[in-house]
User: What shape does this take?
Amino acid sequence: MTRDDLIAMLREQTPACGPARDTLIAGGDFVVWDGLVPANRHAGVFRRRMRHSLRRGHTIDGRADSVDILRRAGEEPLRTGSIDAVDKSSVFTIFLNSTATVVVACCGGRRPTTMEAADAPE
Assistant: This one.
């Protein structure tokens, strides 16, 4: 997949897709991993991360929408990827279909500026 392919795939699936697309256009790095994971497993993980983030007062653009999309996708196998801003100020998680030809969901935004606000792993 090329940068232009991914830019074209980032539509309006979630509110984070536009900023993720802008990050790519500005030269941000991206990676899409080979492994496939059922969408509903991603939904569970990101639902927990969302609750954790909200308790810390940190919101993630598109996360609630992504969780809903992933939950509805059920057992559909998905690839995941990441988009990082050139200056590392923003990061986005992308979810693609199994052939990496369609972005299903996207969440992310500005990185927390302090460790207290960070979305720590669970």
Observations:
- The radius of gyration is 14 Å.
